[in-house]
Amino acid sequence: MVISDGVKFDIRDLNIWFGPAHVLRQVSMSIRPNEILSVIGPSNSGKTTFLRTLNRLNDTERYFKRSGEIIFEDKEIRKFDPEVLRQKVGMVFALPLSLPLSIFENVAYGMRMHGKKNKKDLSNRVEKALLEAYLWEEVKDRLSESAFKLSGGQQQRLCIARTLAVEPDVILFDEPCSGLDPISTAKVEDAMVKLKKDYTIVLVTNNVKQAARVGDRTAFFLSGELIELNNTDKIFTVPKDKRTDDYIRGKFG
Ligand SMILES: Nc1ncnc2c1ncn2[C@@H]1O[C@H](COP(=O)(O)OP(=O)(O)O)[C@@H](O)[C@H]1O
Ligand SMILES: [Mg+2]
């Protein structure tokens, strides 16, 4: 299904504007299957915009405009039905968006949105998704309890399970640990590292240490430009650009 082996997304000369604001500039890169690609950079550098563009969440924003190509598998994302694209390219947001429903229904929610109704199918998939999100053991005896009874870290893994339940290929994470304590953060990071066996992961993080811990490759964005993209160990030991070096050393941002 892919044009060139080893490419999940192929992005060429991507530019994004919101009205007059030129938010991403000439970004070209590819995203490889089964990698964790970390995306780092100071606030307002365009990281979230980049992520939301990949599954067309920005399309409904007023004044959104883009040029360049984004090829997912072998098709420009504009040619996908947005719902189909979002099933294949799922997203997990910074704050866990638990719904006022049971633990079970929080995970089943996306599947129901996609028209799945069969009880047995739903419960099999809910279990599988909770297992994959490393939450099953903690919730298996209380699936009918409100999701709000879970801790922040558990709720974030619940959101990951909801995303996994619709069987995506790619998962986009936007600062998934920003509100979590170190122990919960470690659990979410463990889950991500295990998930890359079956999924492709793009991880936007404001925590450079997290990028270093879990990213196979790391991309550094600054003011809408992709400054540097390389294997994570290279970025953190021998960055090519002085601005990358300054950022990872905490000199700005
Ligand atoms: N929907 C939008 N409408 C107008 N401007 C936006 C919108 N989303 C993001 N921006 C602008 O795009 C720039 C990049 O933002 P963002 O992608 O959120 O950066 P980051 O995630 O790196 O902090 C900011 O200047 C922000 O104000
Ligand atoms: Mg952001």
Description:
This protein has 253 residues and is α/β, with parallel strands linked by helices. It has a single domain (9-248), classed as 3-Layer(aba) Sandwich (Rossmann fold). Helices cover 36% and strands 25% of the residues. It has ten helices and ten strands. It has helices at 47-54, 82-88, 103-113, 119-132, 136-139, 152-165, 182-195, 208-214, 232-237, 242-248, and strands spanning 9-18, 21-31, 36-40, 64-72, 75-76, 89-92, 170-174, 200-204, 217-222, 225-231. The chain has a six-stranded mixed sheet, sandwiched between helices. Strands 2-1-4-5 form a four-stranded antiparallel sheet, with helices on one face. A hairpin with a 2-residue loop joins strand 1 and strand 2. Helix 3 (103-113) runs parallel beside helix 6. The longest helix has 14 residues, at 119-132. The mean pLDDT is 94. The structure holds adenosine-5'-diphosphate (ADP) and magnesium ion (MG). Magnesium ion (MG) binds next to helix 1.
Explain briefly what this protein structure is.
By secondary structure, the protein is of the alpha/beta class.
Give descriptors for this structure.
binds magnesium ion, six-stranded mixed β-sheet, alpha/beta, binds adenosine-5'-diphosphate, 253 residues, Rossmann fold
Helix/strand class? alpha/beta
Strand fraction equals: 25-35%
Could you give me the name of the CATH homologous superfamily? P-loop containing nucleotide triphosphate hydrolases
**Order of H and E elements:** EEEHEEHEHHHHEHEHEEHH
Q: Regions with pLDDT < 50 over 5+ consecutive residues?
A: none
Q: Main β-sheet: number of strands, strand sense, barrel status?
A: 6 strands, mixed
Mean pLDDT: 94
* Oligomer class: single chain
How far apart are the first and last residues' alpha carbons, in Å?
A: 39 Å
Bound molecules: adenosine-5'-diphosphate, magnesium ion
Could you tell me the number of beta strands?
Answer: 10
Counted up, domains total 1
Rg to the nearest angstrom?
18 Å
CATH class: Alpha Beta
The shape, in one word, is globular
Which fold name is given in CATH as the topology? Rossmann fold
Number of distinct helices: 10
